[in-house]
């Protein structure tokens, strides 16, 4: 009988004057992620937050008849902190981890007639997964160790990869299983995919020019997330880069790096992104074991739209954009020519873009006038909410008004009209 892996089950409750009411599981998951960073407060929703700055005695003194040993904070309203509810965090017990339930795995070693890694195979079955010794139509993941890539004959290696992809199975590094176990959840397998077969030398190799990706950092925006792997001496470490703030005028950026296989460590970063080049420093530990992370570290990288590649202290990292605010139109520092309906020719210049917020200038050549604007963008419509003219006045416009962007066959040139 297989012994399952377990995780500690924790519940958060608030008191409604007569009984303890559990928060939803989605809220609890968010609370736990935030609580690991030891914050002073945790957001519940747009109206409420949990104050964690009080001692157990201070919490008890705020209420009558509540003295639970698990009290952890007070839920308050943002608009009135005196409207409060007691909050507790309770250890319920342990629950089995079965996030691989019903998923079929196969090791490249067993396909080639060898033995699979015992620890990795055991973890798969403990998490509810199914092990196969060959590639089947129901296979979901082909597990490949880094040593297998180095020692396996290239022709055999590529054939197994091709056979797996033929049944829509995903070839992944064995570190994927290790990372899932460390994080106690099924992670995104994308950073662990063995996407490129090993090179097979031929008798008469034909040189092929490799296209150089154009540097473009316009997708590096506040709120974007980049996930991938840092490779150190043949070992792979999943990393996630989150951009918290970005000054569009200076390129100064602040954010965090998350290391799933280094005890879930989170570190702060700061740097500068400009014209496809992104250099940053990892300088402070936010959470995690300080013995797992050596700081500071200096990173040098280049960005080509949705891809980021760089190095740190002789190691290589590659990241892909996994989460981003809308960036299909109105990128920072882009200029567009347009014609305003029934008024005059104008030029629109985007100076700053943060999520849906956008600002820039409208220039009216006929009047030799330039006005500054602030607004929001939703899909192809910019809503101008603030409009400030300079010394020279342009056409009379009353806010709010819309600028509608029209694309023609995905060409950069766009026809812009203003609806007043």
List the helices and strands and how they pair.
Blueprint: E1 5-15, E2 20-22, H1 25-35, E3 41-43, E4 48-51, H2 56-61, E5 71-77, E6 84-97, E7 104-107, H3 108-111, H4 118-126, E8 130-132, E9 141-144, H5 146-151, H6 154-166, E10 170-173, H7 175-183, E11 225-232, E12 235-246, E13 252-259, E14 265-274, E15 277-287, E16 297-304, E17 307-312, E18 315-323, E19 335-339, E20 345-354, E21 357-364, E22 369-378, E23 381-389, E24 401-407, E25 414-419
Parallel strand pairs: 7-8, 7-9, 9-10
Antiparallel strand pairs: 1-2, 1-6, 3-4, 4-5, 5-6, 11-12, 11-18, 12-13, 13-14, 14-15, 15-16, 16-17, 17-18, 19-20, 20-21, 21-22, 22-23, 23-24, 24-25
Question: Could you characterize what this model shows?
Answer:
This is BRCT domain-containing protein. It comes from Heterostelium pallidum (strain ATCC 26659 / Pp 5 / PN500) (Cellular slime mold). By secondary structure, the chain is mainly β. It has four domains: about 5-95, Signal recognition particle alu RNA binding heterodimer, srp9/1, CATH 3.30.720; about 105-190, Rossmann fold; about 225-325, Beta Barrel (Lipocalin); about 335-420. It is about 15% helix and about 45% strand. It has helices spanning about 25-35, 55-60, 110, 120-125, 145-150, 155-165, 175-185, and strands at about 5-15, 20, 40-45, 50, 70-75, 85-95, 105, 130, 140-145, 170-175, 225-230, 235-245, 250-260, 265-275, 275-285, 295-305, 305-310, 315-325, 335-340, 345-355, 355-365, 370-380, 380-390, 400-405, 415-420. The strands form four sheets. The protein has an eight-stranded antiparallel beta barrel. A hairpin with a 2-residue loop joins strand 17 and strand 18. Mean pLDDT is about 80; it is low at about 210.
């Amino acid at each position: 009988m297989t012994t399952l892996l377990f995780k500690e089950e924790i519940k958060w409750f608030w008191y409604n004057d007569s009984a303890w009411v559990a928060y939803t599981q989605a809220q609890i998951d968010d609370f736990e992620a935030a609580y690991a960073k030891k914050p002073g407060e945790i957001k519940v929703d747009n109206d409420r937050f949990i104050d964690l700055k009080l001692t157990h005695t201070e919490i008890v003194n705020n209420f009558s008849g509540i003295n639970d040993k698990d009290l952890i904070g007070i839920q308050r309203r943002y608009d009135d902190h005196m409207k409060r509810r007691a909050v507790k965090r309770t250890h319920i017990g342990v629950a089995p981890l079965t996030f691989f339930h019903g998923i079929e795995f196969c090791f490249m070693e067993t396909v080639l007639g060898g033995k699979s890694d015992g620890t990795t195979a055991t973890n798969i079955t403990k998490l509810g997964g199914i092990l196969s010794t060959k590639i089947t139509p129901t296979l979901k993941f082909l597990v490949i160790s880094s040593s297998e890539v180095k020692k396996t004959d290239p022709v055999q290696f590529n054939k197994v990869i091709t056979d797996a992809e033929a049944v829509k199975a995903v070839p992944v590094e064995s570190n994927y299983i290790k990372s899932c176990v460390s994080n106690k959840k099924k992670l995104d397998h994308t950073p662990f995919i063995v996407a490129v077969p090993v090179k097979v030398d031929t008798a008469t190799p034909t040189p092929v020019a490799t296209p150089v990706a154009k540097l473009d950092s316009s997708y590096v925006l506040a709120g974007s997330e980049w996930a991938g792997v840092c490779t150190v001496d043949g070992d792979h470490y999943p990393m996630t880069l989150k951009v918290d703030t970005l000054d569009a005028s200076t390129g100064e950026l602040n954010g965090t790096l998350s290391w799933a296989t280094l005890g879930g460590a989170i570190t702060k970063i700061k740097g500068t992104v400009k014209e496809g080049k992104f250099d940053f420093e990892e300088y402070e530990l936010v959470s995690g074991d300080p013995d797992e992370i050596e700081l500071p570290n200096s990173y040098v990288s280049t960005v080509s739209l949705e891809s980021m590649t760089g190095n740190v202290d002789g190691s290589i990292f590659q990241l892909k954009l996994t989460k981003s605010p809308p960036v299909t139109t109105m990128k920072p520092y882009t200029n567009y020519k347009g014609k305003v309906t029934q008024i005059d020719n104008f030029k629109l210049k985007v100076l700053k873009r943060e999520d849906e917020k956008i600002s820039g200038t409208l220039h009216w050549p006929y009047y030799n006038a330039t006005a500054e604007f602030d607004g929001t963008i939703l899909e192809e419509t910019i809503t101008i909410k603030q409009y400030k003219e300079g010394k020279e006045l342009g056409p009379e416009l009353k806010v709010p008004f819309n600028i509608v962007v029209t694309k023609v066959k995905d060409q950069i040139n766009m026809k812009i009209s203003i609806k007043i």
